[in-house]
Amino acid sequence: MSELRADNVTLGYDGPDVVEGLSVEVRQGEITCIVGPNGCGKSTLLRSLARMMRPKGGAVYLDGADIFGLPTREVARSLGILPQTPTAPEGLTVRELAAQGRYPHQGWLRQWSKEDERAVEGALDTTGVRELADRPLDTLSGGQRQRAWIAMALAQETETLLLDEPTTYLDMAHALEVLQLLERLNREEGRTILMVLHDLNNASRFSHNIVALSGGRVFASGEPREVITPELLAEVFSVEADFVTDPRTGAPLCVPYGLRRAGGKAAGEDE
Predict the structure, then answer these.
(1) Which domains does the chain have, with CATH numbers?
(2) Where are the alpha helices (DSSP H) in the chain?
(3) Which residues contact 60 (CB under 8 A, 6 or more apart)?
(4) Of residues 207, 145, 205, 195, the one with CA closest to residue 170
(5) Over 80: is that where the pLDDT of 266 sits?
(6) Do the Cβ atoms of 152 and 123 come closer than 8 Å?
(7) pTM (2 decimals)?
(8) What's the pLDDT band for 271 if we cut at 50, 70, 90?
């Protein structure tokens, strides 16, 4: 399996650094979620791990080599990437989108093959979009489109998938549809999955490990029960919450009831 880690990375755009001196290792064969408030560096970190953003300092390593020193096709054979708001040409069908996932495996001496066809058809089956294969993406529901994009990533036949907020703009049913698909890919095929999620309860339910960021640094990391705590909600999100145990998974679930304010009381709480 491909080993992926960030070592003491500093990341930023034109202004102040967004991430500073951050180290994280993506555990192989497991689902890891990155969580944190808006602007804490979640998507920025994922972009760097996906070789889409070069660190100002430190390095990202893929199988022990600096990822920015590796050929693009080699990285694409190891990492399947789904950005937060992917775009495709108008009229592109689901099958055509999935076929784009085979480009890293092609070259001057290797054109479209039966192996490529097998990979695409397998990805359509795995994601449950075969019946939609000939439909344009812009005619699909949000959940169907996300599954189609995941099919493209699966067609790459990478061991690791990186997804930036794969449930954004989806209602509860479609979000569960996508998360359960990713859970099945991990359980049945051993795929390593790293994703950014906003919903802490979904992160707790569907992940083996959680990395919580705050101010561009790792606030806590570990199993959900070690990370999703009253302290995390209060200090990172400024939220007061009650906690219950998921009766099916044993993971912690939070029930927010107010914003934290000075003095440790929740906004609206009786004096």
Answers:
(1) 1-78+158-222 (3.40.50.300), 86-157 (no CATH)
(2) 42-49, 72-76, 94-100, 114-126, 142-155, 172-189, 200-206, 224-227, 230-236
(3) 4, 5, 6, 7, 9, 48, 49, 51, 66, 67, 68
(4) 145
(5) no
(6) yes
(7) 0.88
(8) very low
